[in-house]
Amino acid sequence: MITSNPFAELAAVIPPGVMQAYVVLMVILVAAGVILDMLHKKNAKYFFENSKRAKENAKRTVSGSEKVALAAKTIGKEVLTSGEFANPKRQMAHLLTMYGFILFVVTSAILIFGYATPAATAPAIVPLLWHLGALMLAAGGYWFWFGIRVDLTSEGKPWYKVGRADLFILSLLGMATFGLLWSLTLAAGAISWLFFVLFIAATTILFGSVYWSKFAHMFFKPAAAYQKRLTRADGSAENMPTISRDDPEQQKRHSMELLRDAPMDMGLGIQREAPQHY
To answer: How many degrees, rounded to 5, is the angle at CA 10 between CA 8 and CA 11?
Structure first.
């Protein structure tokens, strides 16, 4: 079953043109949501104003080759490996979710635009990757939902407590879960159509609620990470103290006299045991 194309069987009821129009509509909804999010939160305005201030406060000029190296480091750490997460479990769950989502969305587009008819047989690897992407997305999402969320581990709240901030992860989980169930029950009649309707509903909520969810952050995260590296390289450091307390100038900036001469390995309480004793 995992090497069969569910969209080809769906074409017997829903024309491929309708499926393709739905995908285009979802792309438009995402673009509109991101633009509205930018206008409301003024993300782009803040980013460019912050970049301008950083240039004014820069202590050195970063060369073109350095900028390329910083961009490569940003892609390698913050984008491809989510290395900014100190918690390895959080990092792994995020990677499963991210790569599962990419696999699922890309292969969905390939199957719908290239092989959405019974006559067009898709290579077995494409529907296999579609199912694999859904499984990865579900694994990472459920891992995060049941065991990693901050309010679960730090505040002792039950896993079923739902808030507005959970819209993104729940719609992701719904899309992956109901998509898999729809595909695996295609021959089951009414139950299969129920899963298909839930799959479409979850997908529409995910892509239609970009303005209200954290979906848009994936577009700003790489730029913000690169800008942070750049400000560290040019010395502006976003007008914040650097992590090196052995620098006399940074020692003078410390608000607490007691800590001005403190060793670098002092204050690592943040690395204490995770609060899981509720």
So the answer is: 65
Torsion-angle region of residue 77: left (phi > 0), alpha (psi -120 to 50) or beta?
alpha
Q: Which of 97, 81, 93 is nearest to 215 (CA)?
A: 97
Contact 70, 226 (CB under 8 A): yes
| Structure tokens that stand for 218 in this block | 């994936």
pTM attached to this predicted model: 0.80
DSSP letter for each residue of 203-229: HHHHHH-GGGSSTTHHHHHHHHHHHHH
Parse the chain into domains and list their residue ranges. Answer: 6-234, 241-271
Phi, psi angle pair for 124, to nearest 5°: -55, -30
DSSP for residue 111: H
List Cβ neighbours of 217 (8 Å cut-off, separation of 6 or more): none
Q: Identity (one letter) of the amino acid at 179?
A: G
Q: Running DSSP on this structure, what letter comes out for residue 254? A: -
Q: Is the pLDDT of residue 233 over 60?
A: yes
DSSP for 116-179 reads -STTSPPPTHHHHHHHHHHHHHHHHHHHIIIII-HHHHTT---TT---GGGHHHHHHHHHHHHH
List, for residues 3-25, the tens digit of each pLDDT value.
889 999 899 899 999 999 999 99
Q: Look at residue 184 in the predicted model and tell me its pLDDT.
A: 92
Half-sphere exposure in the Cβ direction for 90 (13 Å, CA)? 11
- CA 68 – CA 65 distance, rounded (Å): 5
User: Who's near 143: CB < 8 A, 6+ residues apart?
Assistant: 89, 92, 93, 96
Top-confidence range, 75-84, 138-147, 258-267: 138-147
Please tell me the predicted confidence (pLDDT) of residue 106: 97
What integer is the mean pLDDT of 116-138? 93
- The alpha carbon of 228 is separated from its chain's Cα centroid by a whole number of angstroms, namely 19
* H/E stretch holding 47: helix 43-57
